[in-house]
Specification:
- The chain is α+β, with helices and mostly antiparallel strands and 96 residues long.
- It has a single domain, classed as Alpha-Beta Plaits.
- It contains four helices and six strands, in the order αβαβαββββα.
- The strands form two sheets. Strands 1-2-6-3 form a four-stranded antiparallel sheet.
- The chain starts with a helix and ends with a helix.
Length: 96
């Protein structure tokens, strides 16, 4: 799988932006991607050194629209921590 297929999008919320000072960046990733795949993809795409990767599965939430109801799709989230000597990711720096 290519790096662009593994990293789907960055997650930009107040909570994830608090982690940027500690070099922790949050991404939505492919469901079948492993921690090693995610680390390699982030290193390749952004030119940084990854220290560790934490992953979690986000379950779909129940949503209603009138009488009908259904679940949003489930997805996988990865919190990537960079090494101390690594440079930061410019995309997130512009958000602060």
């Amino acid at each position: 799988m290519a790096a662009q297929d593994i990293i789907i999008r960055p997650i930009v919320t107040e909570k994830t932006m608090d982690g940027v000072q500690n070099k922790k960046y949050t991404f939505e990733v492919a469901k079948d991607a492993t921690k090693i795949d995610i680390a390699r993809a982030v290193e390749e795409l952004f030119g940084v050194k990854v220290s560790k990767v934490n992953t979690l599965h986000v379950r779909g939430h129940l949503r209603r629209q009138g009488r009908s109801e259904g679940y949003t799709s489930s997805w996988k989230k990865a919190v990537v921590t960079l090494t101390e000597g690594s440079k930061s990711i410019e995309f997130f720096d512009s958000m602060i």
